[in-house]
Design brief:
Length: 299
Amino acid sequence: MQKWVTEQTITQQQSGISVRELLRLWLIPKRMQHFLRVRQDVLVNGVYRPYSMLVEAGDVVRLVVQADELQTPMQTYLSDSQQVMPILYENDDLLVINKPTGIKSHPNRPDEAGTVMNFLTAQLASQNVRPAMVHRLDMATSGAMIVAKTPIVVPILDRLIGDKTIARTYKAWVAGHFDNLSGEFTNQIGRDPDDRRKRALDGLQPQTALTYYKVLREAKTATLVELTLATGRTHQLRVHLAGNGHAILGDPLYASVLEQRAASRLMLHAANIRLKVPFTDEIIDVGAVLPKDFVAYDG
């Protein structure tokens, strides 16, 4: 059975707590905690320790996770070396890439290639690592995207996203000008009753949604805005902006024909990700510089 291993050195801030408390602090899922204990796959300085034992600064904790302990089975992707994904940040457990526009995040079929996950499968092969999905960006969206290098951290990152501990900031060129330089959109978002591909304000089975915006620059007929997601609904930014009269330029689903023709692609860029690095006390800010078409756009 396939196994994955992570080794972490206990920091001063983590010193003096039990193994059980440490695993909770690391956001290890209960199912995984159970198997780690039963299989004695938690080693402190090379020796199994009962969950009640305390760890000290400088101790090396080794977790061995087996495939049947994963809540979601590890997916495999075809290797495709046609493109190299730019890496903005990398450690042993995860990386943040700068996804180009026009590339899907993941394949929809086992025999599909040409996506971020296919390219990273080839790119990480020399490390004997297979990428794992954490979150996705729409095909037309560019910018910062987190990818796991081990399935051990996938539920941890899922939890951080769900708890809003991971902050994602976007930039977009949108139609028109705003009355206020900053504000928020609070409309609920549900399924579009007329188009299965789309979402709509107050659509079917609506869910709470919150987006913050800040005006960065105004052009003749468009505005560059900074957008922060407080929730993570499908197409949230695109629906909130279009539904409030400021469609993202180039949006093939939600913009008018004129607004679509105003740009050669969806003018949405994941500009920054702020996250607490799993297993550590470190908080990192990872920025993806604006593409040339964003900088040059004059509305």
